[in-house]
Amino acid sequence: MQSIVLLLWLALCSEQDVRQRQISNMLTLGVAACALAWLFATGRSWIGADASDAGWALAIVMLLTLPGYMLGRFGADDVKLMGALALATSPQYVLGTFIGAGVSVLLWLLTRRRLWTLLNPKVKKRLQALTEEMGDKQAFVPYVLAGFLLTAVWVQ
Fold it and tell me: How far apart are CA 85 and CA 27, in angstroms?
């Protein structure tokens, strides 16, 4: 059940990231605040891991995302999203999500030309319009969603 709620949250964040290349602080900081309150109230993360595991997950997220943020590869909203995810889960979920996101990026890069030819013309037109509006900035959260989904299936 908890994984489904996190999947829905990541789906909302993905949709917003694809459309606006930005995620609302209400979605990222709101979930982070709820996860932190849950940690203090129960001593466990949202998925049931110990509070210390959530702390380690947050440390891992900071080690993996802050250098990318400093180099301009990640946005602040991506760092906040991953921090909120860390507070709600555990190191296994965080590392699995990063690995799954990397695998998703590679799969997309390898198959996007083939998939593009299979798309409906109306969908192609809409995706081209979205791409032109946003320029070179790549959405990161859809890959995080895929990585989390793969991790949730693997861990469960």
Answer: 11
Q: What is the DSSP string of 66-125?
A: HHHHHTTSS-HHHHHHHHHHHHHS-HHHHHHHHHHHHHHHHHHHHHHHHHHHHS-HHHHH
Are 94 and 82 spatial neighbours (Cβ–Cβ below 8 Å)? yes
What gap in Å lies between CA 67 and CA 73, rounded to an integer?
A: 9
State if pTM tops 0.85: yes
Task: Give the closest residue to 150 by CA, choosing from 93, 106, 111.
Answer: 93
The closest of 48, 51, 56, 24 to 36, measured between CA atoms, is: 51
Q: How many CB atoms lie within 10 A of CB 89?
A: 29
Residue spans per domain, the chain: 1-155
pLDDT in tens, 96-140: 999 999 999 999 888 878 877 877 788 777 766 666 555 567 788
Residue from 25, 27, 22, 20 nearest 6 by CA: 27
Length of the chain: 156
